[in-house]
Amino acid sequence: MKTIAKICALAAASLGLATSVQAQDTKTVIEAGYVLTQPGEGYQRNRSITIQDGRIVSVDRGFEDHPDTVRVINLRDAYIVPGLIDSHVHLSNEFSPTSRLKILSDSDVDAALDGAAHAKKTLLAGFTTVQDVGGPNEAIFSLRDAIRAGKLPGPRIRASGRGITPSGGHGDANGFSPALTEIFTGPNACNGADDCRRAVRETIRSGADVIKITATGGVLSNTKAGLEQQFFDDEIAAIVETAAMMGRKVTAHAHGKGGIEAALRNGVQSIEHGTYLDDETIALFREQGGTLVPTVLAGVTVTGWTDQAWLPAPSREKAAIVGPLMLDMLRRAKDGGVNIAFGTDTGVSKHGDNAEEFVLMIEAGFTPEEAIRAATIVAAEHVEMAGDIGTLEAGKFADMVVLRRDPLEDITALKSIRLVIKNGEEFRP
Ligand SMILES: [Zn+2]
Question: For residue 178, how far is its CA from the centre of ligand 1 (angstroms)?
Fold first, then answer.
């Protein structure tokens, strides 16, 4: 097989074709001056990272001479971190004054193409893996598969599709005329434990890697339905049990304390947002081993929209309440020892600005290395890919971000990207 691949690569090279076969078959050595192979353990100095077939073969001390057949990339003066992971994005959408109009005018194909453009920005911002937790099913699953097949540049995607919601809940169609609501509501809306089992099964059938539920109300749904628990306990338990039978984890959008606690109590593994968590909630997180995805960037973004006439009044009211609470929520969760995975809710904020969340994490009391760890090792476990991503070691995907400055000195260095490497392939911002 190896020989055939080589022949193909040579043939392709002689035809001037840059193929993935050629890219993957070449052995590449990255000469890394400062590399955070295991975020949390400080830099390793002067390491040679050997890459082949998209994966790391070895990380060795020092630099040596290599035969001409090996491609060497000299990054002796650069800072390298593992490819970043954003656990909460919406690639097929970006909020704007015309968002609600786009729901009426755009097809799922339009959403997929928007997603492709956003995916490229995300990758060039250093995020080589994302978890997409809400968007039209066909659009996001096709985008995921196209990127995986190497047809488009973008991060590796793990996707939930349209989240499971109670009728009239945060994830349902809200604020349209009855006729349009009828059209825009979907099989993701469920009522009662049995119906919610159906919704989980259908979501998995359509291609979901993970189950996302809206356990409480949310800010950007056009409804005065509050921010508290919306699914009953028995509905959540049925969703978790059904998902587990089919090998899927459940993550819950939740702001209100009652809704966060109901989710954790009924076996949901992670909470998105977590706005109203208190000491009791923090204790429950620790008891259940739950993970928090804080998305403070979304809070800051919507706080800036509270005087914008284009945002429907119910959303403006909820944004004014929730937005300003999120930074302090993160501070308390961190002090309380909650396991925290990096996530931004990008799509509320602009795609490609994901690293802004790091700045907010520092404000909430993280050290730069703790924040990077949340976006690598912790997020990799959270998205169930710890065997493939999150650290730089033999056997893992060759995903890394090459920075001009030291992010442990100044976290904004994560916005000063020289090169992104995903599956051993190079992308220059
Ligand atoms: Zn979200």
Answer: 25
β-strand partners of 214: 253
Backbone angles phi, psi at 265, to 5 degrees: -60, -30
Q: For residue 42, is it left (φ>0), alpha (ψ between -120 and 50) or beta?
A: left
How many A from CA of 99 to the centre of ligand 1? 15
Round to whole Å and give the CA distance between 416 and 21.
30
Q: State the distance from the centre of ligand 1 to the C-alpha of 157, rounded, in angstroms.
A: 15
Q: What's the gap in Å between 137 CA and the centre of ligand 1? A: 15
Sign of CA dihedral 331, 387, 215, 257: negative
Query: In DSSP terms, which residues pair with 293 in a beta bridge?
Result: 272
- pLDDT per residue, tens digit, the chain (429 aa), is 344 444 444 444 444 444 444 454 689 999 999 999 999 999 999 999 999 999 999 999 999 999 999 999 999 999 999 999 999 999 999 999 998 899 899 999 999 999 999 999 999 999 999 999 999 999 999 999 999 999 999 999 999 999 999 999 999 899 899 999 999 999 999 999 999 999 999 999 999 999 999 999 998 888 888 889 999 999 999 999 999 999 999 999 999 999 999 999 999 999 999 999 999 999 999 999 999 999 999 999 999 999 999 999 999 999 998 889 999 999 999 999 999 999 999 999 999 999 999 999 999 999 999 999 999 999 999 999 999 999 999 999 999 999 999 999 999 999 999 999 999 999 999
3-state helix, strand, coil in the chain (%, to 5): 40, 20, 40
Ligand 1 centroid to 345 CA: how many Å?
Answer: 5
Task: Give the distance (Å) from ligand 1 centre to CA of residue 62.
Answer: 43
26 Cα: distance to centroid of ligand 1 (angstroms): 39
pTM, two decimals, is 0.93
Q: What is the secondary structure of 399-413 as a DSSP string?
A: -EEEESS-TTT-GGG
DSSP code at position 83 = P
